[in-house]
């Protein structure tokens, strides 16, 4: 076993990046660029932020992936064996990239992906705790679509869901700190932990 030490300097401006123990996603507090930690080191990725809803404020920022995708649903088979039409559509997903319970991540991802949020430049504030790899964010997006299909009224026996990734970027999402914990400042979804 060999250990390698990688410099955690912003690949864009050279500033030292700060993260938490297991972070693989970094935002530069100096120039605002986002980067992902890979075997070879840090790789710059497009980044930005989603703004709080009107009347809400951003007390803390957390990382997420914004995915522009084309979703294809086919081979919908109902319990009786009857097939029904699939569909294909362009969809945007916002998938939280910080560690939380799957229930929280799913509720928040579903709400954020339905909210038509406006985007802005990355805030020059600490944005830490990013641990979710891009391919895992795509898997969670697929999980959301499968969940939506299963919830539809007919008794679904099986379905095929494909997600083609058109573009991806890291975004900071705003949270308000309340007595009970964190609440998303875009959707109002509270994290139960
Ligand atoms: Zn930088």
- Determine the strand fraction and express it as a percent band: 35-45%
Helix amount: 10-25%
Main sheet characteristics? 7 strands, mixed
Question: What is the CA–CA distance across the termini?
Answer: 35 Å
Q: Choose one word for the global shape.
A: globular
Number of helices: 2
What bound compounds does this protein have? zinc ion
Q: Which structural class do the helices and strands define? A: alpha+beta
Average pLDDT metric: 92
Assembly state: single chain
Radius of gyration: 18 Å
Overall strand count = 10
Helices and strands, in order, run as EEEEEEEHEHEE
Provide keyphrases for this structure.
193 residues; globular; 40% strand; 7-stranded mixed beta sheet; binds zinc ion; 2 helices; 10 strands; alpha+beta
Provide structural commentary.
The protein is an alpha+beta fold and 193 residues long. The protein contains 2 helices and 10 strands. The protein has a domain at 49-118 and 132-184. The protein has helices at 102-114, 134-151, and strands at residues 25-27, 34-38, 41-45, 47-50, 60-78, 83-84, 87-96, 119-120, 156-178, 181-184. Strands 4, 5, 6, 7, 8, 9 and 10 form a 7-stranded mixed beta sheet that branches. The structure holds zinc ion.
